Amino acid sequence: MSRRVGDGAGGDGGEPAHVVGQEAESARLEAALADAVAGTPVVVVLEGVPGVGKTTLLRRFLARRPALATVQAEGLAWESGRPGALVRRLGGLPSEGPVDPGAWGEALAACWRARAAEDPLAVLIDDAHAADPASLQAVASAVVRMAEGRLLVVLAARTGPDTPAHPDTRDVLDRLPGRRIRVAPLTSEQTRLLAARAAGIDLPIPVARRLREHTGGVARYLLEILRDSPPMRWSDWQTRLPAPTSVQQRVEAALDAASPSARALVEAAAVLGNTPILAEAAELGGIADPIAALDEAFAAGLLSPAAGHGLDTLTFPGRFVRGAVHATLAPARRHDLHQRAAAVVRDETERLRHRVEATPLPDAALADELLDLARRKADEGAWAVVAGALIDASRISPSRADREDRLLQAVDALAGAGLLGQAVDALSDVEALPPGARRDAVLAYVAIQRGRRAEATSYLDGAWRSRGTDRATAARICQRQVLHALADWDGAQLVRWAGRAIEHADPGSPAAVETRAIVGLGYAAQGEIEEAFTAYRAATRESPAGPQHQRARMGLGWLLLAQDEPEAARRELEYAVAGVGQGGSNRILLWALCWLARTRFALGDWSGALQNVDQARLLLGATDLELLRPLVHWTGAQVHALRGDAEEAARHVELGTAAEHDYLVMTVPALLARAHVAEAASDYDAVVRHLAPLATRTPRGGLDEPGFWAWHDLYANALVVTDRLGEADEFLRPLEELVRRRGHRSAAARLGYVRGRLLGARGDTAAAEEAFVAARARLEGLPLPYEKARVDFAHGMILRRAGRRRDAATVLATARQRFAALGARVYMERCDRELKTGRPGSRLHDNDLDALTEQERTVAGLVAGGMTNKEVAAEMLLSVKTVQFHLTRTYAKLGVRSRSELAAHFPRSTG
């Protein structure tokens, strides 16, 4: 992702002086040129928001190839209504004539074909979104007519809601057949690099993160802000970020041209917030005719009605306009508007915010009011509001001790709200405070959310040792220990620390209420399911509404999913997801989305599961809750792997990786994602390798509790397929006993189908069939279509290998139908292969072949058909070692010594 960020001389080939990133886009553009040079015309649509670097990318591309023949043109907005305006500038057409995109396309194709006959030709159209539609249609027609030719056509076009474009132009661009390269915005790391290169600024990481979010990573805006702001601005993570200079100038010019009433309305709206109420803005600005003022402000691009709200709620077009308007206010005017706004708005939190904005000096009394608000909102679990109030209180507190104490509480609240990025931004200030129990408890809380297990352990141990006699501090440390144990899926520790938290906490305090919303999972991780449900019934009664209720419903949904009640789980988790709209926590929302995705996967709604994964991915980017990253991507990896999209599955695996010593709720889904992808690729050795860290973990504790982490059947099945039958049997026996004691139906069915495969591999087909029938019976009435399909598929394979082709075909057809309903293409194809292999072939002509077993015949037929041992293993869901074993016995029985002799000796099936 590179873009030009400065003027002046560059390096080789005219490289600009300040360039960061854009490597991926450059590589894709180079690949497109290489294909075009090879003789295949290629069309590339280069997309991105204004200022992200599309034009710079094209300039750099050309600078590196000065000998490349080019035709260049640019779409002009004022010509978008003149058909043929752009195509005539491309050359080869008369300046006048009727509108005929088809004929123009033929002329262009002839011209380009002639020019590209000897040397490659690049046609570059910048600002294609501003071109007239007829010209773009002609370009498309020209490319279609050039089936061959060394031609590269690149159209650079803006995207985004504020992009002016003829609607037909956008339609043509969307329909153009070709490759799409989206120029990505800068990352936080690239923002730091840009600051160093372009402005000589060593940007602190927290400020770089905020600046990147503020600008959307658009290089043009970043460069303007960096170059036009004083260096002192970048020393504070709470610094107020300005609008880019170009936007600030445009807004100031529009305000200067506005009438007094329109300007007053815009200024009042900017003071009130991002989505002000029109009536409140009119009252604050003293506007007699707000509709006329709004109409003028709308025409000037300064205000607009918010989508879906009619005229009663306003918004600002673009991400910078409100800030630019606010920046134009003189100090006295700003002070006056915020003071009066405090009397206009109805919400208590907003009233206090305006009073803080109007207070340039320390104010102990106002800080105390903010503290009182924070305490009351903490009781509700509205941690985002708590954090904002505490940050404001810290800023206006007269004493240093109060400022530090309130900052500490604010960072704790930010972590509780799931606003981890902001919490991390403030860590340098927190770490600079004197060591102590409260400081270490806050640092531990942030470390837990970041998935840093060892760091959290160290801070929690230190906090507990230095807790003193303050019961509130002790309760807070215990509650953090509860979260720490949950992240490690350690039920005994969770319940133990929950008891201590409730013992030290005041009744109704956040530490007590949040602990009771979690303790049920601790009981469940120990197998005490009735106690778990009892705890959740109590938690939902204690907090019948609000964020704490959201927490309890999320935990209950997770518990219900684990206990084979996915439909009830979906109701609870959907409630928890919706709860964020009532002031709930983004942290709990992310947990809920992860488990809702798993629930929808279990129910067979895989498209809905992927929608939840996409929602969670966006939220993950906004919250930086690394603890949940593997959990987010686990479902994405599994669904895409089963649907045959190996590339997308691998991307989820890579995004959801975790280290061996991370929290268990990180390592288990990360390893499961890898195992699911390996199983979909028939790489059963890799399945065993990925899950071995779980199988060899001592003790495994809650990891074996049925229903929560379904990895056992995946691992045991891979052991069977790779001929480790003794290991599989030894692994299964204690789990089967545990599942029997718990009475867990789906877990019993999963282990049951593996037991069936194991028995079948040992040649006991009758016992294997009994295991499959029992597994199917356990799933009867449960809405778990994928689990049922797996049982049928394994059963069908064993029947086919036992020579019972007709029975196998019936069971496999049922399995295929279930897999097809889910879109599990990988297993649909396996069912098809099994069904095909099971059909009778042509009569064998050599009596020696009668000595082969069914399995040996199948292996021999596939090898004779040209497959490698590895391909046969994947085809038959066997290990390579097993294939080699069958092949060796076949060679001996038939008296052949090579694959070629086998191919000549063994007639191919016609079935």
UniProtKB/TrEMBL annotation:
SUPFAM superfamilies per the UniProt record, alphabetical: C-terminal effector domain of the bipartite response regulators, P-loop containing nucleoside triphosphate hydrolases, TPR-like
PANTHER family, A to Z: TESTICULAR SOLUBLE ADENYLYL CYCLASE, TRANSCRIPTIONAL ACTIVATOR DOMAIN
Gene Ontology cellular component annotations, sorted alphabetically: cytoplasm
Organism: Pseudonocardia halophobica
Alphabetical list of InterPro entries matching this protein: AAA+_ATPase, AAA_16, P-loop_NTPase, Sig_transdc_resp-reg_C-effctor, TPR-like_helical_dom_sf, Tscrpt_reg_LuxR_C, WH-like_DNA-bd_sf
PROSITE patterns the record matches: HTH_LUXR_1 (PS00622), HTH_LUXR_2 (PS50043)
GO biological process: regulation of DNA-templated transcription
Gene3D superfamilies for this protein: P-loop containing nucleotide triphosphate hydrolases, Tetratricopeptide repeat domain, Winged helix-like DNA-binding domain superfamily/Winged helix DNA-binding domain
Alphabetical UniProt keywords: ATP-binding, Nucleotide-binding
Protein name: LuxR family transcriptional regulator
Residues annotated as domain HTH luxR-type: 845-910
Gene Ontology MF terms: adenylate cyclase activity; ATP binding; DNA binding
